[in-house]
């Protein structure tokens, strides 16, 4: 028995951003995006384009930074509460951090304390808001435009939370690869590796199903083939389109499975060592792949369709792929002391995402010691 469900209306293709006005259909909206107006950056231009397409927003939330935390999100919710008229939809224009912030704003409806209480206690979910979200990703990696959760950080307590509600699935996702043409190389690589991690983590996952795995296989093959090419040709529209589609497919895959061990390992690196999310959740993929090989027939079949019949050679090729992009597969190169690595793996296996992993601890530790 298995089930696959995703309610997001996805519109994909060059120029699909231009349909924003039609999608909003006159609704009063809150625009959530980045603030680079002071240096005339790309989001200042995208904001002007959004307003030209959909009219002035009722309010703009523009304080979003990497890894949205309690302090910044409380400010975002306070800004949302100053809307000049009741907000009927939220437009999230940006990368994964903007998508996360928009979902928190939608759930908070001007009161972040409601969200915080829910995250810390697990109660009060029925009190959270349900404002529809129009998600417009400007990076190819997060997949958040088709998921129902947001990552929220409490940096003062050094904790990571996941806000997960069925009502947080965006109403519409407008995936326009042309919006990604200006991404610098480092962000292109980091977000692309996040998409690869989403794909592979949805395969070696207790919640995997034939639909999610099929989507993940396509996504992983595309990232592995296209990302190194794109890293050396950042203005290539065809390659941007391939990565945007791969990220979307990976998002559709892990929207039903969530992530697994590599993501669980990543949270410590991001919180304590400042490692960008896409790097933190991808450097360990070869190690995890070696450890999971042979654990599950369906997983092995999916991995063979990505890497070929020899999974040992496939893990080596995955490691070479990371190194070609400048990513070391060694934990010590990302700030982890050698003596701490086994403890961090045990902690990750005990976490919510770690429990999705289909492999065995003993096999993983043996791989680490090899």
What does this structure look like?
The model has no long low-confidence stretch (mean pLDDT about 95). Helix 6 (about 185-205) runs antiparallel to helix 7 (about 210-230) and helix 7 runs antiparallel to helix 8 (about 235-255). The strands form two sheets. The chain has a six-stranded parallel beta sheet, with helices on both faces. Strands 6-7 form a two-stranded antiparallel sheet. The radius of gyration is 20 Å and the shape is globular. The protein has helices spanning about 20-25, 40-55, 70-80, 95-110, 110-120, 185-205, 210-230, 235-255, 260-275, 275-280, 285-290, 295-305, 310-325, 340-350, 360-370; strands at about 10, 30, 60, 90-95, 135, 150-155, 160-165, 170-175. The protein is α/β, with parallel strands linked by helices and about 375 residues long. It contains 15 helices and eight strands. It folds into two domains: about 10-180, Rossmann fold; about 180-370, Dehydroquinate synthase-like - alpha domain (Dehydroquinate synthase-like, alpha domain), CATH 1.20.1090.
């Amino acid at each position: 028995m298995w089930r696959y469900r995703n309610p997001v209306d996805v519109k994909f293709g060059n120029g699909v951003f231009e349909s924003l006005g039609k999608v909003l259909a006159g609704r009063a909206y809150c625009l959530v995006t980045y603030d680079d107006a002071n240096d005339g950056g790309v989001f200042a231009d995208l904001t002007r384009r959004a307003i030209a397409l959909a009219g002035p927003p009722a309010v703009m939330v523009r304080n979003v930074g990497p890894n949205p935390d309690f302090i910044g999100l409380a400010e975002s919710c306070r800004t949302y509460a100053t809307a000049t008229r009741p907000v009927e939809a939220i437009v999230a224009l940006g990368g994964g951090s903007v998508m996360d912030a928009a979902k928190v704003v939608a759930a908070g409806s001007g009161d972040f304390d409601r969200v915080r209480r829910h995250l810390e206690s697990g109660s009060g979910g029925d009190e959270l808001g349900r404002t529809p979200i129009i998600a417009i990703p400007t990076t190819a990696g997060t997949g958040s435009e088709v998921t129902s959760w947001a990552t929220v950080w409490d940096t003062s307590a050094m904790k990571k939370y996941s806000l997960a509600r069925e009502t947080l699935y965006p109403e519409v996702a407008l995936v326009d690869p042309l919006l990604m043409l200006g991404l610098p190389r480092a962000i292109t690589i980091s977000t692309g590796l996040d998409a690869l991690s989403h794909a592979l983590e949805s395969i070696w996952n207790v919640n995997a199903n034939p639909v999610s795995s099929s989507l993940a296989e396509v996504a992983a093959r595309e990232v592995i083939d296209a990302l190194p090419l794109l890293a050396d040709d950042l203005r290539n529209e065809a390659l941007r389109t391939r990565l945007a589609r791969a990220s979307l497919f990976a998002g559709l895959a892990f929207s039903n499975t969530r992530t697994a061990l590599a993501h669980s390992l990543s949270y410590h690196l991001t919180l304590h060592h400042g490692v960008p999310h896409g790097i933190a959740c991808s450097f360990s993929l070869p190690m995890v792949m070696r450890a999971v090989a042979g654990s599950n027939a369906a997983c092995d079949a999916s991995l063979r369709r990505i890497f070929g019949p020899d999974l040992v050679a496939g893990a080596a090729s995955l490691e070479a792929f990371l190194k070609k992009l400048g990513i070391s597969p060694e934990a010590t190169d990302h700030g982890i002391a050698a003596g701490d690595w086994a403890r961090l793996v045990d902690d990750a296996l005990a976490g919510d995402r770690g429990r999705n992993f289909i492999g065995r601890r003993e096999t993983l530790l043996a791989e680490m010691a090899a």
